[in-house]
Amino acid sequence: xxxxxxxxxxxxxxxxxxxxxxxxxxxxxAGSPRAARQVVRVLHxxxxxxxxxxxxxxxxxxxxxxxxxxxxxxxxxxxxxxxVVVDDDGQVDLDRFQFRPGRE
DNA sequence: AAGGTGACTGATG
DNA sequence: GCATCAGCCACCT
Length: 104
Description:
This protein has five helices and two strands, in the order H-E-H-H-E-H-H. It is mainly alpha-helical. Helix 2 packs across helix 3 (36-46).
């Protein structure tokens, strides 16, 4: 597995319960700020196998970005179960729930 | 091998 | 706030 991919996996695994991170943010922490789409690829490829908390990853607008209706519903449900406030449009308040390492 | 495709982003109107 | 656009880059046809 490639270094970038490994680091993406590590970053995603580091997201605490009840917090979220954005694709671009993860890419940056993994060493490649412009590689948001690669984060998506990693999630598609490994979320199941690696048991990643894929539901804690949303876009930079604070919106749940999954296309598939069923998966989107699952993601919103998981987040709400963890205490993240998600409105019916899948909108999350990043100021409140985004996880920023080294801050807290 | 060229072209299409995203669970993206930031800038612009 | 919504719509477009142009970068982005590995992966699939």
